[in-house]
Every structure is written in structure tokens, then in C-alpha cells.
């Protein structure tokens, strides 16, 4: 066979196009490539027209450079898709394969069965059976979300928008005689100065850092000037005291929050699980008694005097039905922490009985019945004090009311009905909405009356723009209606605007307490102390007042507010802010008005207060 001749000289330059005024590409790299000198094309460029030479690079080498970059971006995208697919395949989530009538250009995802998972690191090989531990609820939610995203938003939109319309009851629980409540945080008090809230926390690194003494122990701690000195010996008790002080500050603020609630007709609140940071941690954890006994007892005393109900809701990681021993052990510690916190409140008998701990069943781990069996087994190991407080709630991921009610009836556990969750996860035997679930009211109520606990329900609404199942899980800022519950129900409003969502219901339905509050004045806080604000001295004015000051140099007089009146809304009870206007709770930012010239002629922005 005759061999092909090899070219010995340089490759000829690309042909010059006939459109010298063709538009340039927008890529900066193409521009750099066009301006970069090239040795192999310098001779041809010298002999040609400059515009033609410029077009050569735009349509020749520049295009090649752009194609190379696009190829690199495609490779990165494919790598990211493979990594995401591996994360899903490494879990034991059950992904149901749906037959597609039309071809799909998206990457196909392998869905492992119950006995087979893909080992980590195996991207191209065949799946191999390995023993793995199922994910907990949080990781399972994230992985399930990845699967949903991979299927595309079109499927989610179809399943959300085209679902049968909900069938709601026309019953309204009026006249209202129950207690309305909110969860954990009061937006009005949280934006006060100083802030009043019960979820101050820290990082574990801060606990370890504060085992070292301050650089200057005689001075208070400062973020930059007086920090823990790591060159000095560490003391475990010193770090423990640091995190305990945060918890005490949180617990002290409960009293203010309770008194504020009762003043405005709210007698029900969920305590933050983060009140005592890392209290149930295996390494940094601690018991609340005796250091927090007195502070919590004071809060419980106020709650008892004002008949204010307090509850808790351990987080999503607290799952005693998990197949992972470490997850169950952590859940046990967390339940013990919440039980101790409620016990140390020393509430009156009925309020103590009503101080429950709401828990979710957690993940299904591919087998609901096996999860229920593990839950029953671990529930039997709980202390009697925890069992007296524990209640179950239906969720918006896997467990419906029909799934949990038989378990609650068997184990003598009250069931919290969450209407919002029910509208997302419900048994096929009934329709979405609040009407069909009414048939189960008697059975649900019996789980509470059997233990002498005042029944409570949760109510929230989805955001107005939510269509897909994932978006429908998000709570709206406020709610527009009341559920068809009993008029003497304790109803927890789970909305983003917290106590303001309760106020909204009060005003809408003229519920007890609706006339106790008024709208705030934007950017003003009549219930906070403030220093006197002096006017900026004008040139040429002589001082004729006391201490050489001008008589009328005070712009805003000093104001002193007592500790009892602080944060309570002032004499006109201004604590309500319209939806979307939370910024009114904070001081107004300084506004830049116009440009003026400085002494050297440079422009200077004029601010509020400048003459």
C-alpha cells in the first residue's frame, strides 16, 4: 500500500472570508485569542487587509477556542450528573420507574431494588450487592428531592396542577373558645434592641475555643480585642460554662415572651429545641439540672399563673424508628433532654400534662411495617416520663394519618393532626382537603382524652405560588382561614410570620384579643429606651445654654423605658406589622439624598442629618 506523503512545511492559513464587517463574538477569550500574536500566521496577516485579518480570527481560530471551551463545560456537566446519580444509587431509596411514551434526552437513572445498591466509587461497573445502612429522614428527603429533580419539573407540575381539587369543609369553629399559638420565635421581640428570643446558639468550635481563658480575664470578652487565648491551658468546664450561659439567656427570655403573648390574647407557644445548645450531644452534652433549674422554674411559674400552654417539637433527626443504632441512640438522648426541660418548668398538673413533645415517625427506609416494628420496639425502652409526653404527628413526606392512627391507638400515643401535611400525604381512600378527614376526628380525639391531655392540632397553608409537591410543603407567611376543628381546640399556627399570623386570624374572624393590638409606626419602637439626639451645630451660632451648649440643640429627647414595659408595644400597643413589611420593625437606614461638592471639589454624598 502506498503511504501518504507527510506535509513538511507549515499549514496554510485559513481562507479569508468575504465579509470583513461580520459581527464579533462576545467571548472575552475569543477577543484575547484574536489579539494574541501568532507566529505561524504573522506573514499572511502582514499582507492582508486588517479588517480581513480580524475576521479570520473571529471565524477561524476563535471559533475553535470557543468550541474547546464548550467541550470542557459539557464534560464538567456530565461529571456532575454522574456524581448526583451515584449519590442516589448509593442510598436505598425506592425509585419507581415510570414508562415514558416519548423519548427523553435526559440522562437515565438507575433505581436500585431493596437488596441491591451501587457501591460508592463504582460509576461504570455493574451494581454489586453490599450491606448498607438506610439514610435517615433528612438525607432521605434530600436524595428523594434529587430524584425528583432528575425526573424534571414537568412531571412535578403535572402531578401538582392536574391533581383533583381539594374538598374542604364549610365548618368554621366559631365562636372561638380555644387557644391559638405559634412556634418558637416572636418576630416583634426578636427585632427589639436588645433582642428577645430563646434560640441563641453557637458552633462546637466555639465551645472548644472557650475552654481557653480570655487574653485579659479582668475585661469582658470582645470579638477582636479580647478573645480566648489558645496559648493558655484549656479547661473543659470553662467551655461547658460558656454554652450553658447561652442556654440561661434563652431561658430567661421565655418569661418576657409569655407575658407578651398573654397581653395580646395568645396563650399557647412552642419552645425552641435549641434553647440549650448541644445539650444532647454525645461529647458536648450536659444535664440541665441544677444550673438551669431556677431559671426554668421561674418561667414555668409565670406560665402557670397566666394559664399559658408550652410544648416542644424535637427536630427531624429524632427518629426512634431508624434502622441505624447511632440515630436511635441520638434520638433517645434528645428526647431525654426535652423531657428534662419540660419537667424543670414545674408547671401545674394540667399544664404539665399538656406539655407534650411532638415527634414524626421519620423515614420509611423502604419498608413501612419494618419501621413501625422498630418504632414499637424502641418506644418500649423509653422512660415513663417520656412516654407520658410523646405524641406523633402525620408528615408531608411519607406517613399519613391512616398510617399512624392504628399505631397511636395500640401504644396509647396521642396523634397530632396537621392539616397542611394531610393535604400532601393522605390515604387513597379519602380525598385531599379537610372534609373527608372529619370522619376520623372521634378516633383522633380519643387518643388525647384517654391520657387526659388537652388536644392540639396544627394548621398552616401552602404558598400561593406552590404547584409541585415539593413547593407545596413550604408554609405561607400567614393563613387566611381556620380549619374545621372543635371551637375549644388548642391550635398551633405554623406560619413564617409567627405571632403576626395569629394576629391576622384574630382580625379576620374577630377572635378574642383582636382589639388588643394596633399597627406599628414604620421604623419606630415606642417601647425602647433611647439616648438624646443632638442637632448638628451650625456655624456662627454662639453657645448660651448650660455647659456652653445651645439651648435648642436637642433634636430627640432621652427616653427611659422600664424593664417591664420594654418590648410590650408602648402605651398604644403597636405590635402588628402588615404582611411583607417586617423591615418596619428595625430602624430606618440612612438615606443618601444628593451629591454635593467637598472642599477639594470632589463629589460627596449628602446624608440625613447634614446641613
Written description of the protein model:
By secondary structure, the protein is of the alpha/beta class. The protein has three domains: 28-59, no CATH class; 65-95 and 105-161, no CATH class; 179-516, Alpha-Beta Barrel (TIM Barrel), CATH 3.20.20.150. Helices cover 35% and strands 9% of the residues. The chain has 19 helices and 14 strands. The chain has helices spanning 28-35, 42-47, 50-59, 61-90, 137-151, 153-161, 187-190, 204-209, 236-263, 293-305, 325-344, 349-354, 368-379, 384-389, 401-411, 419-422, 441-449, 469-472, 499-509, and strands at 179-183, 268-270, 309-311, 357-360, 390-393, 415-418, 456-459, 490-493, 518-519, 533-534, 554-556, 574-576, 592-597, 603-607. The strands form four sheets. It has an eight-stranded parallel beta sheet with strand order 3-2-1-8-7-6-5-4. Helix 18 (469-472) links the parallel strand 7 and strand 8. It is globular, with a radius of gyration of 33 Å. The termini are far apart.
